[in-house]
Write a structure and sequence with these properties.
The protein has 613 residues and is mainly alpha-helical. 43% of the residues lie in helices and 9% in strands. Strand 17 and strand 18 form a beta hairpin. It is globular. It starts with a helix and ends with a helix. Its EC number is 3.2.1.-. One of its GO terms (molecular function) is mannosyl-oligosaccharide 1,2-alpha-mannosidase activity. Its cofactor is Ca(2+). InterPro entries: 6hp_glycosidase-like_sf, EDEM1/2/3, Glyco_hydro_47, Seven-hairpin_glycosidases.
């Protein structure tokens, strides 16, 4: 009875506050109290609001540079509008570089040649040989110095030629894939294969935009290593009735006898970029062929009613085991690679699949008002639905979905990207991190850990490149400060076990160095050769840079898939623009450059929806 009385009292208190706000609109101008998503309990106490400009050690620079806006006016405009001082950008760039250096040096000192760094105990981590069922570890760690390999192109992007050359030689001299390790095909592809290919492209680039990254007497060793790894992954594509690969393979023995016949859509359908690059560098269609066959097999299984795909499928029967259709874990990079494969290879079929998928996503997953920056109603949000009916399946979203605004930037849907990004940024402001799953109805984390993921930083960087709006520099500053405050450990940066309690786990995943630090650094490094050299680059789903050039748009074979006519249209080199390259972005109009990308009343609405205010 006491508990019921307490809840009733809190509900009455909230109703009273809402009535007060309705009577005093001046206290909350533009606040929208109508919601599509009802909250049955009062929101939990607000944890982290946006820090005042003067509360950080960079606040004095903001005040001197005028970045904080004029006194008076809207609080969002005061904090985010106006120019961002170049001195502050330089300091933030150096801070992002320092974050990478501390994590990288700690790994090299305490963990190499093992796969990952345990930042709390300052030691290395490899596969869990005692518990093969520990997939959280064994899917990723293959006993091949994962963190060193994954970080190679970040060293180049930051201009550290001496360490890049040293690291490449170390990989060539010490890493072997002839290991009795069972790894996930997807993770080995995006983290290891992708990084080897990226570093090889950087080394062999005749223009050398990042400085002298050449290796003396280099004989394509990284390309040969990538080939060796890909050959060891090929058994996953054999003996499957659908052409969809097994999720795991032993690098020495092939597919394990007890292998699971179920795989996720993203894991099976996000191999085409790396496998396609390898095929086109080698002149061997095998790798692109198997990856493209898997994409087509998944695409053929989409719902006839909605056009949506599920998130888990049986590779032998083609039956959907997981019927959830969303943009987060299990699905995310499938859509990303449909578009990026088109950007890189110019196969119009890839773009047609992406356009169909995007239309179906808009029709069935998107909720909220039609326009981001005008009209009434809830802000746009993409939810998880049943692939066959389009009906809502749950009320959570996951942190991986924060990549989607960046993907929307690549297709020019910048306005919608602005709204979705603002929603994830509001969650970050509340907790100083993104919980792995966040329940938008309960305004609370469902899965409260944060493993240093890069997706919000990635979208922030791409939105800044598209809009040049200093708002996104403020976002990056908030993220950088939170990482330093809550995740820095004795030897590197640690996963947050609980975003509310700020407890840590003893793990620094390799993508922290390959993606999170890289995107933060590039956000603040306006003069980086990646932005200024005139070359066009694309980021893989692991954040590895690959050049967009003619050699990847010209295959040396006639047919990609057997039995098909050689009529697949390919775009010509001069028809393709690398849409994440700053000079080619579809930007928000110049007159909005120093205004908030999202009107303050809508920003306030989102902050209220996540319980921030």
């Amino acid at each position: 009875m006491q508990w019921r009385s307490l809840v009733l009292g809190l509900l009455l208190l909230r109703l009273g506050l809402q009535a007060l706000l309705a009577l005093l609109p001046a206290l909350a101008p533009g606040l929208c109290l109508r919601r599509r998503f009802p909250f049955p309990f009062p929101p939990p106490p607000a944890a982290l609001g946006p820090p005042a400009a003067g509360s950080s050690h960079w606040g004095s620079l903001l005040r001197r540079g005028g970045g904080g806006g004029e006194a008076g006016g809207d609080e969002y405009e005061r904090r985010y509008s106006g120019a961002f001082p170049p001195q502050l950008r330089a300091r933030l760039r150096d801070a992002a570089r320092g974050m990478f250096v501390f994590g990288y040096d700690s790994y090299m000192q305490h963990a190499f040649p093992r796969d990952e760094l345990d930042p709390l105990h300052c030691r290395g981590r490899g596969p869990d040989r005692h518990d093969p069922s520990n997939l959280n570890i064994n899917d990723v760690l293959g006993n091949y110095s994962l963190t060193l390999i994954d970080a190679l192109d970040t060293l180049a992007v930051m201009g550290n030629s001496s360490e890049f050359q040293k690291a490449v030689k170390l990989v060539i001299d010490t890493v072997s894939f002839d290991k009795d390790s069972t790894v996930q095909v997807f993770e080995a592809t995006i983290r290891v294969l992708g990084s080897l290919l990226s570093a090889h492209i950087i080394i062999t680039d005749t223009k050398q935009p990042f400085g002298d990254m050449t290796i003396k007497d280099y004989d394509n060793e990284l390309l040969h290593m990538a080939h060796d790894l890909a050959v060891r992954l090929l058994p996953a594509f054999e003996n499957t009735k659908t052409g969809i690969p097994y999720p795991r393979v032993n690098l020495k023995k092939g597919v394990p006898p007890d292998s699971n016949n179920e795989t996720c859509t993203a894991g099976a359908g996000s191999l085409l970029v790396e496998f396609g690059i390898l095929s086109r560098l080698l002149g061997d269609s095998t790798f692109e062929w198997v990856a493209r066959r898997a994409v087509k097999a998944l695409w053929s299984l989409r719902s006839n009613n909605t056009g949506l795909l599920g998130n888990v499928v049986n590779i032998q029967t083609g039956h959907w085991v997981g019927k959830q259709s969303g943009l987060g874990a299990g699905s995310d990079s499938f859509y990303e690679y449909l578009l990026k494969s088109y950007i890189l290879f110019g196969e119009k079929e890839d773009l047609e699949m992406f356009n169909d998928a995007y239309r179906n996503i808009q029709s069935h997953l998107r909720r909220g008002r039609e326009a981001c920056n005008e009209g009434e109603g809830d802000p746009p949000l993409y939810v998880n639905v049943n692939m066959f009916t389009g009906q809502l399946m749950n009320t959570w979203i996951d942190s991986l979905q924060a990549f989607f605004p960046g993907l929307q930037v690549l297709i020019g849907d910048v306005e919608d990207a602005i709204c979705l990004h603002a929603f994830y940024y509001a969650i970050w402001k509340r907790y100083g991190a993104l919980p792995e799953r966040y329940n938008w109805q309960l305004q609370a984390p469902d899965v409260p850990f944060y493993p240093l993921r890069p997706e919000l930083v990635e979208s922030t960087y791409l939105l800044y490149q598209a809009t040049k709006n200093p708002f996104y520099l403020h976002v990056g500053m908030d993220i950088l400060q939170s990482l330093e405050k809550y995740t820095k450990a004795k030897c590197g940066y640690a996963t947050l076990h609980h975003v509310v309690e700020k407890t840590k786990e003893d793990r620094m995943e390799s993508f922290f160095l390959s993606e999170t630090c890289k995107y933060l650094y590039l956000l603040f490094d306006e003069e980086n050769p990646l932005h200024k050299s005139g070359n066009k680059y694309m980021f893989t789903t692991e954040g590895h840079i690959v050049s967009v050039d003619e050699r990847f748009r010209n295959s040396l074979w006639q047919d990609i898939l057997p039995g098909e006519e050689d009529s697949a249209e390919r775009i010509k080199p001069n028809e393709l623009k690398a849409v994440n390259f700053s000079s080619n972005c579809n930007r928000v109009p110049d007159e909005r450059r120093y205004l908030l990308p999202l009107k303050s009343n809508y920003m306030r609405q989102i902050d209220q929806m996540v319980g921030l205010i």
